[in-house]
Design brief:
The complex is a heterodimer of chains A (113) and B (114).
Chain A (H helix, E strand, L loop, with lengths): L2 E4 L3 E5 L4 E3 L1 E4 L5 E7 L5 E7 L5 E3 L5 E5 L4 E6 L8 E8 L7 E2 L3 E6 L1
Parallel strand pairs in A: 2-12
Antiparallel strand pairs in A: 1-4, 3-9, 5-6, 5-10, 7-8, 8-9, 10-11, 10-12
Chain B lengths: L3 E4 L2 E4 L5 E7 L5 E8 L3 E10 L2 E4 L6 E7 L2 E6 L8 E8 L9 E2 L3 E5 L1
Parallel strand pairs in B: 2-11
Antiparallel strand pairs in B: 1-3, 3-8, 4-5, 4-9, 5-6, 7-8, 9-10, 9-11
Classes of the chains: A mainly beta (113), B mainly beta (114).
Amino acid sequence: AQSVTQLDSQVPVFEEAPVELRCNYSSSVSVYLFWYVQYPNQGLQLLLKYLSGSTLVKGINGFEAEFNKSQTSFHLRKPSVHISDTAEYFCAVSEGAGNMLTFGGGTRLMVKP
Amino acid sequence: DAGITQSPRHKVTETGTPVTLRCHQTENHRYMYWYRQDPGHGLRLIHYSYGVKDTDKGEVSDGYSVSRSKTEDFLLTLESATSSQTSVYFCAISESTPGAGPQHFGDGTRLSIL
């Protein structure tokens, strides 16, 4: 069965610093991988997804993630964060087209001035 | 923004009462989902629908039922609410297969059961 672990529940970082939010998954088959962002009092928005092809995936708002099959990871990165990036970020995995997503517990990114 | 509306946005009710949450979409997407969000658990799938009158259970379906009589509406019902069902509920929609991920989420319904 698929599962997702987000290793950090909170990540504080100063504005304009780089950030990496970590995500590891467990699955015995090929997977699709996702990152979503949730701003306060809102639903989730899709940041980026990996379905196949290049392991480096670029998303909205300057975020990117790299699929590492050997390490079963899909870490999210941004070279320079803004105050407006303060939000909760969710990693998710599915085991194929007909399968539902499993979400991680979330990482709260707190960008400080 | 995608046309997806949840109602009500907030509700407080008592244990044992029935509760119905509504999700309405204007995108004509095939798939609709109900999730609940609890601290530390991310989102967990309650039920989903792959067409009118076609629904199936998710990971945490006990105590919940759903109905979809029209493409645009997906209702979630708690037949007899319990305090463990206090949560934030999100509806989501997608036009592609479930494995490709929900594309749009509603803004959520905050449900408190006393």
